[in-house]
Amino acid sequence: MGIGTLVAMLAAALAVIGVLATQQAYSLFLPGLLQGAVLTIEIAILGSLLAVIMGVLAALARLYGPAPLRWLATVYVEIFRGTSALVQLFWLFFVLPQFGVTLNAFLVAVVALGLNVGAYGSEVVRGAILSVARGQWEACTALNMSRAQMLRRVILPQAVVAMIPPWGNLFIELLKSTSLVSLITLADLAFKAQQMNQNTFKTIPIFTLVLLMYLVMSLVLTIGMRLLERRASAGLARGKAA
Amino acid sequence: MTEQPMVRFENVSKRYGALTVLDELNLEIARGEKVSVIGPSGSGKTTVLRMLMTLETINDGVIWVEGEPLTHMKKNGKLVPADLAHIRRIRAKIGMVFQSFNLFPHMTAMANCIEAPMTVLGMKRTEAEARAAELLDLVGLSQKKDHYPSQLSGGQQQRVAIARALAMRPKIMLFDEVTSALDPELVGEVLQVIRQIGREHDLTMLMVTHQMGFAKEFSDRVCFFYQGKICEQGPPGELFGAPKNERTRQFLHAVLEAG
Do B53 and A141 touch (CB under 8 A)? Predict the structure, then answer.
């Protein structure tokens, strides 16, 4: 599916929101929901950044680190992949203070979601690195490059192309799991919707708008990842097009 | 006193479990010598090149490059496994061209040729580009310097790979069946380039090849490998003209029959 279809979907979703906004039954809720959406976006962006950093670090540690680091990375990945994101949020928010460490809710949201998705991401990174042909490593050795030079200049640039689509999936997962943060007192999009619904019982307009807003966010994300993929594979794909 | 050999394999063995790929190999290659390695598949000939490039570890013996051990270093008069810094210092003298080219697909021909000179040798971009331009010209590809590997034919890719290896100014060049993956009509252009660098550069060359005609005409010496050992070696005229060993005769007969 080309980017064109995605852009058309995005335009349609925005148009529907625009049309609904002309009606008072809907426009009433927009400011509050937009406020929530801003928080959702903030958590999603910072969480994704942390996830990428953790994913790359954990993958490199597991592939090339010394034994203690390898072990540490494996423990991290298995814990954060093997328990639910909700429990991780609760643990960091409600349990950690019992041990004297109190983090604010926003920080907990970013850290918990970032670490959770980073654990999945490390497998994506690891798989992509291993998928680069062995001959590439051998050519680097024959050119007397160091391990770090091989990774940075030759292996990772090729692995990145294979990584982008699965990372896109993970970012969308992360965006949607931000709705969990409403359970640790944060007023994100899902929280705002629930709050307004309880006050007004206008279920149809509220949840229709929320649905469209999540869709818009994830479409923007998907389109962004597509463009990134196109850019990263520019050199690799050039010949195929010719 | 005779001159120090460029490369010397001393009782080098390579085993994979119970399988012995190379059995106490002893081989000396003189400075500037062109040596072809031939033999049936599984005879260990490619392993010789891969060990010299440090792509394979060795189980026994020592490989000497200009009198210095490649993967060992002297400590208290004994040879111990070398650290990476030592290996990289010796390995800098060796370059290799592969059967499957192994160009970096995300880089243009030019970028392939300046990558290692810049990152490994610390050359300035202008200097590296000037050198790469000369080499791409030498292999007849100055017109293609901004092309990506996927836009080049197999023969062109292999010529870029040769230029890329030469850009590191090795003293020893290893060619591992460099024409085996090519369509027949592209073999000639690659062999022509090898001939030319053999003439114009003071390089020691070790090549595994199935091109008997090329081995005969180009090399100073031909080694026939069989079951992990050098079964027979000598000047190409002798080895191809009057092989002494029965195995060599059988192999040459089979190959020439097919060719």
Answer: yes
What is the number of structural domains in chain A? 1
Instruction: Tell whether A11 is covered by a domain.
Output: yes
- What are A54-73's pLDDT values in tens digits? 999 999 999 999 999 999 99
- Domain with A216, as residue range(s), is 3-234
Work out the burial of residue B256: count CB atoms within 10 Å of its CB; fewer than 13 is exposed, 13-18 middle, 19 or more buried.
exposed
3-class SS at A5? helix
ipTM value, please give it.
0.94
Please judge whether A141 and B55 are an interchain contact, meaning their C-beta atoms are less than 8 angstroms apart: yes
Model pLDDT for residues B65-107, shown as the tens digit of each residue? 999 999 998 888 888 899 999 999 999 999 999 999 999 999 9
Nearest CA-CA distance, residue A234 and chain B, Å: 8
CA distances from B145 to A147, A242, B137, B192 (A): 27, 16, 9, 19
**Residue A242 resides in a domain:** no
* Cα Rg of chain A (Å, integer): 21
DSSP line for B91-117: HTTEEEE-TT----TTS-HHHHHHHHH
